[in-house]
Amino acid sequence: MTYDPMSPSQHALARGVFGGLALFAIWELAARLFDLPSYILPAVSEIIARFWTARAVLGEAAAYTLGEALAGYLLGGAIGVALALAVTLVPQLRKVIVPAATAVNSVPVVAFSPLILLWFGMGVSSKIVMVAVAVSFTMFVSALAGFDRVDERSVNLMRSFGASRAAILWKLRLPTALPLILSGMRLSTVRSLIVAIVTEMLGAYGGLGWVIYQAVIVIDFVQVWAAIFVASIASLGFFAVVSFLERRLVFWR
Amino acid sequence: MTVQANMAGAQPMARRFGAVLPLLKGLVAIAAVLLAVELLVIAFGIRPYVLPRPSAVIEAVLRTPGAYRDAMIRTGLETLMGFGAGALFGIWIGVAFSRLRFLRETIFPIFIVSQTIPVIAFGALVVMWFGNTILAKAVIVFYLTFFPVTVNCLLGMRAVDQKQVQLLRSFGASDREIMRKLRFPTALPHIFVALRIASALGLAGAVVGEWFGDTTGLGVLLLQGMYAENMVAIWASILCSAVLGIAFFGAIGLAEKRIVFWGGESS
């Protein structure tokens, strides 16, 4: 057995990085060797070059889309958690809110985008609303599952010691539900960006979805790929930040 | 299947009725909500632009039932094709990953990372590659399905209790038998969780795929409604999407109950 200076997790990371680089290498080789036209598969180097030359446009578009996604994400998260809290504190509401939320969720969320675009216009607000709709359901389900985990015996114990409703909420219900709320927030990051981009494709004044749509119309596929790269990086970054916050906030896990 | 059903003919009526009752209750509840919305719209004089009357929406569907039926069949078919292929391929890849360590460690991280990629952005490219065919949308749905299925299949395979594997092995079970009798059944509940997620994702993918160019389908109806600013038509398309979404979700739930009869994670 040879000496291995790397820990298992480092080892896995190295393999993963190797896999990623290998993928890019195969991609580059395939595109160059077979001389694939850019509408089939542009070379990675070509995409990265475009990424650099169009950095101003792409950066601005990414900021635009991230802003929309973040606003809708926070709004949707707040709505979802608030609804779950309402259902927990006023059990009679459960019979109304849960079926209503399930019914809304059975529609693929993108089907709402024409409606929301007509209601809220082509600007930023329609995307924020779309993201909020998409995120709030996921958050509602996660938060509700979290609040349902609270042991009623603990609630009764705190109450018997004279704790107020607010104290029970703050010291017991919220900490118990937090891990599930945050994992819901983590899962919603990717969804929020996708929904923002898809809605932008239907109609917008800017953003990555708009850039992709414009590039498709003028048949500039390197631009489409560059925009997808940027979207992926933005999505990964967003995901990483939320995962980091999650680990910080749920330190006891 | 039919033989089994006949043999189970002694099944008490109550159980069959028990399955119908929640459905009936749900239908009554939906009817009540629609009636309430109808009355609210009339009472407050809400403009159709904000919210059309449910009766007007249903009337719109009934006036041209062919258009909506064809759209639902088309979009449903796209989703079904991509979903079926994606599920099978995902399970296959998941099994392969669970067996081949090198493949798993090199490629699986890429899979995880690619989960964060806004996949639907590829819609435009896929439509370019395959043209305005049903295949293009099926490919999008396939892509959206096979990632979650692969990931959950692998996670499920790895959730197997090693002591059970050793026990089976000590009784002389081959790798193939362990896979069929232990690993795969253990992974099934995980796979179904992924299938449920993928069914919603896939339908959305099919609808968005149609935006990039097609002549029939729910996505097309939605776009046409938007360009004509016809709120009733948009709501009618949303209604049809909901019916399709519920049908898919329900079918998977039913299959899960049948196949994972011992009760999985969802129960």
UniProtKB/TrEMBL annotation, chain A:
It is found in: Cell membrane. It comes from the Bacteria. It is a multi-pass membrane protein. Residues 62-246 form the ABC transmembrane type-1 domain. Gene3D superfamilies: MetI-like (1.10.3720.10). The lineage of its organism: Bacteria, Pseudomonadati, Pseudomonadota, Alphaproteobacteria, Rhodobacterales. The chain crosses the membrane at residues 12-30, 70-90, 96-121, 128-147, 192-213, 225-245. GO terms for biological process: transmembrane transport. This is NitT/TauT family transport system permease protein. Keywords: Cell membrane, Membrane, Transmembrane, Transmembrane helix, Transport. GO terms for cellular component: plasma membrane. CDD domains: TM_PBP2. It holds the Pfam family BPD_transp_1. It comes from Alloyangia pacifica. Belongs to the binding-protein-dependent transport system permease family.
Automatic annotation (TrEMBL), chain B:
Residues 72-250 form the ABC transmembrane type-1 domain. One of its GO terms (cellular component) is plasma membrane. The chain crosses the membrane at residues 23-46, 80-100, 107-128, 134-155, 187-212, 232-255. Keywords: Cell membrane, Membrane, Transmembrane, Transmembrane helix, Transport. It is a multi-pass membrane protein. Pfam families: BPD_transp_1. SUPFAM superfamilies: MetI-like (SSF161098). It is found in: Cell membrane. One of its GO terms (biological process) is transmembrane transport. The keyword Cell membrane applies. Belongs to the binding-protein-dependent transport system permease family. This is NitT/TauT family transport system permease protein. It comes from Alloyangia pacifica.
